[in-house]
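Structural prep section.
Before we set up the soaks we want a predicted structure of the protein with adenosine-5'-diphosphate in place, mainly to decide which crystallisation condition to try first. Input record follows.
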Amino acid sequence: MDSGGGEVDARDRLGELSDLFASRRLVVVSNRLPYNPHRAREGICYIKGSGGLVTALDPILRLSNGLWIGWDGGTGASMKGKRVTISEPEGEESYQLRFVDLTEKEVGHYYYGFSNRTLWPIFHNFIGMSRFNSVHWKTYFKTNAYFAGTILEEANPSDIIWVHDYHLSLVPNFIRYQNPDLKPYFFLHTPFPPYDTFRVLPWCKPILEGLLGSEKIGFHVKGYADNFLDCVEKILNAPVDRESGVVELPGREVKVGSHPISIDYNAFRDTALTKQVMKRAQKHRSRIGDRVVILGVDRLDYTKGIKERLLAVERFLERYSRYRNRILFIQVAVPSRTRVEEYRVMKKEVDETIGRINGRFTGEGWPPIQYIYRLLSREELVAYYRIADIALITPGRDGMNLIAKEYVASQVDKQGVLILSEFAGAAEEQTEALLVNPYDIETVSETIYKAIKMPSGEKRARMEKMQDLLEERDIYYWVRDFFEEVS
Ligand code: ADP
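Run finished without errors. Recording the tokens verbatim:
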């Protein structure tokens, strides 16, 4: 997928945007860099991350001779302030990485502390999970200033600076304050909460001010952008124009828009059609037989609704006893933020719930739940997407949810049914999914039954509609759409 051919194809799909980035350098700033440095015998090697953002931005950075600024993820390779050139694969243009070096303490307070124990839960509307710690806030402030300082060292006014996500909310204003000729763009990859939630955050005001240093702020869906405009109006008393999505500041305007992130649709579809994936899928099928496969895939995070989903599967087995031993629920979870207390507590709860349900319903046949707790390769993941008769994607709150989109793209046989939480950003586009309230266990269990019973023609029609939309609005569309008015 990341072959030279793929990169060329990606440029085609960027269309006119290729010209913009060929003439102006793109400088991307995010907490983590797209490549992880590892110390190997022959020196330091760089392993490319597999996320959607990296896939989309890698070709743009190459054609723009660009720069990506971020933290190395503490892989121990000690890249202190270094700049390296990514020149692989051979024959492709290169781009540069600039490493922001963080101490153990900074990582603890800025990343695990303020970003993941304060902002993450608040932004997802989980107020009760949020921890307010002024030492964490101070380190977040200092670390954001440090990121901004690195940008100021590296960037010039003709660059397009694109800052990403909640870890770096103060960066836009730090940059603009010190050099008003630099005009950063910002994209938030999480939801933005309603005013009544956001105002609970003792540092809500500086966070809004930080973001408003941007030329433009992008959110996944209109609801998040509207929440942001509400907060700006009520907390900062700044005039906003909701119609055109603009915040009026003295001497300038900040654009606020909704741009749902997506996936590389063609890449997922093509992977689903490879021999390797088909073989894997067949192997799973011959093991599972004709049981109905229900699939959940998530980073192990309390926002993903895994516990409630398990309870819905349990309720389904109680209500529809003839389906015992005729369904298999596969839950794939990738370990996440295991240093954070709330995540350890949740993992224990998930482990125990699975054990309890399997203990209860394993008769002469199989346990109803298969639990896979690790990171899968792209091929392994897509093979599961292919065999899943039903994808049960039920986060309590999710900025977008790319799993839902990946499942749709990988459903080349068009016989799968997507059950999707109405609280995921993806629900706004995937309207042919069966939308559910993940906290309504009874209705989710009923919806599983409805999905099993759905006629083949209806499954195909729904899947085709979702695929058509996704094919058009892929990850490249997202970038084009975000930068549409930049010239
Ligand atoms: P989040 O950004 O909150 O983690 P998303 O649904 O937007 O949630 O994105 C999750 C990404 O992680 C997807 O691209 C998905 O393919 C990947 N992923 C999730 N679980 C696994 C897993 N067990 N193995 C490999 N990749 C995974």
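Observations: The longest strand covers residues 292-299.
Flagged for discussion at group meeting.
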